Prior knowledge:
Elements: E1 2-7, H1 11-21, E2 27-33, H2 36-46, E3 50-53, H3 62-67, E4 76-81, E5 97-100, H4 105-121, H5 125-135, E6 146-151, E7 154-159, E8 165-169, E9 172-177, E10 180-184, H6 188-193, E11 200-204, E12 207-210, E13 214-219, E14 225-229, E15 234-237, H7 242-261
Parallel strand pairs: 1-2, 1-3, 3-4, 4-5
Antiparallel strand pairs: 6-7, 8-9, 8-12, 9-10, 11-12, 13-14, 14-15
Amino acid sequence: MIRAVIADDEPLARKRIRRLLAKEEDFEVIGEFGEGNEAIAAIRDLKPDVLFLDVEMPEADGFAVLKAIEPQDIPVVIFTTAYDHYAIRAFDAHALDYLLKPFDEERFHESIQRARTQLDHSRSGELAGKLLSILHEAKPQNESDRLVIKSGGRVVFLKSEEIDWVEAAANYVRIHTGQEAYLMRETMTSFEARLDRERFMRIHRSIIVNVEKIKELQPCNNGEYIVVLRNGKELSLSRSFRERIQDFLQRSLITTRAKHYA
């Protein structure tokens, strides 16, 4: 059996998690607690396999709870919170899940599956190391190099280098990464301002492309170009944005020559 502890200061939230876990035949709830210090003591004593952890709790918040636990005793942690802004702190902890309240049963089951997978792979050192990356924020990271996307009760973490291209979709932007696409409520202009201008370029009123993903440019009869990405995707380069990519190519050529003669 997979032994679980629930730490959340909302009784209704604890009740819902317990009810959902009752449908998972291999899970057993061995304790539930509404205060941070209680959760710390329970984790030390009970040594659960999985911890459902709220962020904002009295006495000690979720991150303080984890910091108080010895690395070898830290279980698989699934954050449960109504606040998406804490997701940045958990960005580098890929072994963890982050459930945004209110989450549905399907999303919860998906999180349970991830917990099972994590337990199968490792119950000790590897997970503890990833969790510690949340607690020690000694080296701030560039916000423009990572994105947190909230969609359908889940939080998706992306590094900007993973993005192939971005297109406008009414009041949203659609972010394409490999075979996946994510919809984010933001204007094209504000989204562009968050990106590294050395890596991303506006090639059309409604298209931004990661220049490192470009394979070739194909001229058209009307004087415009088709931008072909490495994954085979073809994008239109409008005439009004042609100077931008020409300037970029010129800068790239100068840089390449400088490296050649250095």
